[in-house]
């Protein structure tokens, strides 16, 4: 794609980066077919190619972003399916970051929207606050018909059953390996996931300890910053990122860590981008770059660990939902399937596995209509599978797909159970699980 930035514009690092990315796009349109928003709306402006075109025009103009451009960039899920498809290697992820940052700097959202986003960024990254907010939202359920669309979407996203807050992440602690320590890792305890499903961190720690891995958790490393990063809150995003980097810096500098384990794939994509996000920071850039090298999804780590064995033989057919942040953001497709095969279960994949379920961080709250259509589409394809349960590697997807015909849990919960851990609550009533007891 041709660009026409002036010499003055080209002095700005973000314009240089955008220019480099834009020039790679040859406008072939292959990405449109795999873009979930284009598949739903059929509008070129809701496709990667259309958005790239609009961002080029916006950045070249140096004028405040138009409402049209803001509207269609807001509708982008940042699922990165377009990056998997693109034959020219267009780095859409960093281009859309530049585009959103430009919109943030040149325009102002309506006051209600700003307050709502501020509330999300204040509450969701704090597991305790989020847990309390979900309980409050439950109380408001009978009145939701009278509430604004965004609040209604927020209430709709609250799980049916609110569980006790996950204690992992509430203190600095090392969970020691069973037997001799072979490796030492850091676990990102996370934020929203702790309020929604407390079993995931517990299962991750158990399975790692079982294969001789010490697991370090630091309280200060709570939210990875992705939530704020994706909804136009750069200051809060930077604060969260810096908190995480500082929390882990001692162990990283002392070179004591074999890996940084992430069990929410959206956060994994974010950690792997810390090197880029903090590259201008004179104090933290080195540690941030090391974090990006060490970060790995829990399935990536387990698939490369020969010590993992499975002691339970359960006849299960599992439907695997691949989260976008895992398959597109981190290009991890085989590790979860290899682990499930090694655990002795059969696996089925839904039609169009590359398409997003519509969860995408807080997209389901900010764009409830499109999110709802994507959710319905995904559940329809999942329900066509003849399976006992579904697994996924991202809490957002698990929550979004909880109305599917079979129960759903995190893949690490199933792997932990099959290698000797307790039965995940969500699947304890399955006949195959009961028969195996
Ligand atoms: S597939 Fe890549 S090169 Fe082709 S239009 Fe999409 S982003 Fe551009
Ligand atoms: S990130 Fe996803 S929604 Fe956004 S343009 Fe790419 S494929 Fe479409």
Report on this model:
The protein has about 425 residues and is of the alpha/beta class. It folds into four domains: about 5-105, Fumarate Reductase Iron-sulfur Protein, Chain B, domain 2, CATH 1.10.1060; about 110-155, no CATH class; about 175-300, Rossmann fold (3-Layer(aba) Sandwich); about 310-425, Rossmann fold (3-Layer(aba) Sandwich), CATH 3.40.50.1860. The chain has 25 helices and nine strands. The strands form two sheets. A five-stranded mixed sheet has the order 1-3-2-4-5. Strand 8 (about 390), helix 23 (about 395-400) and strand 9 (about 410) form a beta-alpha-beta unit. Helix 4 (about 50-60) crosses helix 7. The longest helix is centred in the middle third of the chain and has 20 residues, at about 235-255. The model has no long low-confidence stretch (mean pLDDT about 95). Bound molecules: iron/sulfur cluster (2 copies). One iron/sulfur cluster binds near residues 25, 27, 30 and 88.
Note the beta-strand portion: 5-15%
Looking at the structure, the CATH topology of the largest domain is Rossmann fold
Count of folded domains: 4
Low-confidence stretches: none
Q: What's the Cα radius of gyration?
A: 22 Å
Please name the CATH architecture of the largest domain: 3-Layer(aba) Sandwich
CATH class of the largest domain: Alpha Beta
Q: What is the β-strand count?
A: 9
Question: What small molecules does the structure contain?
Answer: iron/sulfur cluster
The number of helical runs is 25
Structural class determined from secondary elements: alpha/beta
């Amino acid at each position: 794609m041709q660009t026409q930035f002036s010499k003055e514009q080209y002095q700005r690092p973000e314009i240089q980066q955008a220019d480099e990315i834009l020039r790679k796009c040859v406008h072939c349109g292959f990405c449109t077919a795999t873009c979930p928003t284009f598949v739903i709306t059929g509008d070129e402006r809701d496709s990667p190619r259309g958005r790239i075109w609009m961002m080029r025009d916006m950045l070249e103009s140096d004028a405040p972003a138009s409402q049209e451009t803001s509207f269609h960039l807001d509708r982008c899920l940042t699922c990165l399916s377009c990056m998997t498809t693109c034959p020219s290697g267009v780095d859409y992820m960093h281009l859309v970051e530049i585009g959103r940052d430009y919109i943030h700097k040149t325009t102002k959202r309506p006051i209600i929207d700003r307050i709502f986003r501020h509330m999300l960024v204040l509450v969701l990254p704090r597991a305790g606050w989020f847990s309390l907010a979900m309980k409050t939202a439950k109380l408001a359920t009978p009145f939701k018909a009278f509430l604004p669309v965004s609040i209604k979407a927020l209430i709709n996203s609250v799980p049916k059953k609110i569980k006790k807050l996950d204690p992992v992440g509430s203190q600095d602690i090392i969970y020691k390996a069973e037997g001799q320590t072979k490796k030492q890792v850091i676990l990102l305890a996370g934020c929203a996931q702790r309020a929604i499903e407390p079993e995931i961190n517990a299962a991750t720690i158990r399975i790692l300890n079982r294969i001789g891995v010490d697991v370090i958790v630091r309280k200060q490393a709570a939210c990875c910053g992705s939530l704020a990063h994706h909804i136009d809150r750069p200051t809060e995003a930077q604060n969260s990122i810096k908190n995480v980097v500082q929390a882990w810096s001692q162990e990283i500098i002392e070179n004591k860590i074999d890996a940084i384990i992430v069990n929410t794939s959206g956060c994994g994509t974010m950690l792997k981008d810390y090197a880029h996000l903090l590259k201008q920071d004179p104090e933290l850039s080195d540690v941030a770059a090391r974090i990006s090298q060490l970060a790995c999804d829990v399935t990536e780590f387990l698939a490369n660990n020969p010590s993992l064995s499975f002691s339970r033989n359960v006849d299960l057919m599992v439907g695997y939902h691949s989260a976008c942040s895992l398959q597109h953001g981190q290009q991890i497709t085989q590790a979860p399937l290899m682990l499930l095969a090694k655990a002795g279960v059969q696996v089925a994949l839904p039609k169009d596995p590359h398409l997003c379920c519509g969860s995408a961080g807080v997209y389901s709250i900010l764009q409830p209509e499109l999110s709802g259509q994507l959710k319905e589409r995904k559940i329809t394809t999942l329900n066509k599978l003849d399976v006992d349960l579904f697994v996924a590697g991202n809490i957002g997807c698990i929550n979004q797909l909880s109305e599917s015909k079979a129960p759903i849990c995190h893949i690490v919960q199933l792997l932990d159970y099959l290698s000797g851990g307790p039965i995940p609550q969500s699947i304890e009533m399955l006949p195959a699980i009961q028969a195996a007891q």
